[in-house]
Specification:
With about 190 residues, the protein is mainly β. It has helices at about 1-10, 20, 165-170, and strands at about 35-45, 50-55, 60-65, 80-85, 90-95, 105-115, 120-140, 145-150, 155-160, 175-180, 185-190. The strands form 2 sheets. It has a 5-stranded mixed β-barrel with strand order 1-2-3-11-4. A 5-stranded mixed barrel has the order 5-9-8-7-10.
Amino acid sequence: MKLIKTLIVSLGMTAALPLLAQMQPAPPPVGEAQLIELTATVEDVDAAERLLTVKGPQGRVVIVRVGPDVPNLDKVSPGDEVDVVYYRAALQQAEKLDASAERGGTVTEEAAAAGTVAGMPAGVAARTVRETVEVLDVDQFKKAIAFRGMNGRYQEVSVDAPHLKHWLDDLAKGDKVSVVYTEAVAVKVEPK
């Protein structure tokens, strides 16, 4: 129970999220998260790290951590088309830095939870990451900030929590920022 509660707090999930709402018992959620559903092309599969890199219909590449009990990861290969349901990475904290700040980061916390939804195994696994990044884009419509993560890959984080929304106005392309966020987490991956 404590592990599930820690995961939900670290993910900043809302009560409306269907997977966690059906996992019993459900602790009270904190914060905001955006559930994304899309059909995408697989770019890369890292089975050891349970990372899936997909390219969406608009050409954006997203890396999601696949939950521990999500089936089908072993059936997915680069070039496959898949239906993916995932929680967008979510901003937890931010601090604007001097332009001379060096990029870098660390994983600060890891958690996982598993359960069943409609009799099928389901799960979430999350890592909280602290990084110093350079902002690539601020998208007011999607309520998201984009940057290159410590692995050099494009990363987009949701800025949907009310206490963080000011960052959508306070940040601009090229700003150096210290961010703490939870990674994107896939809860469903189905080959087409």
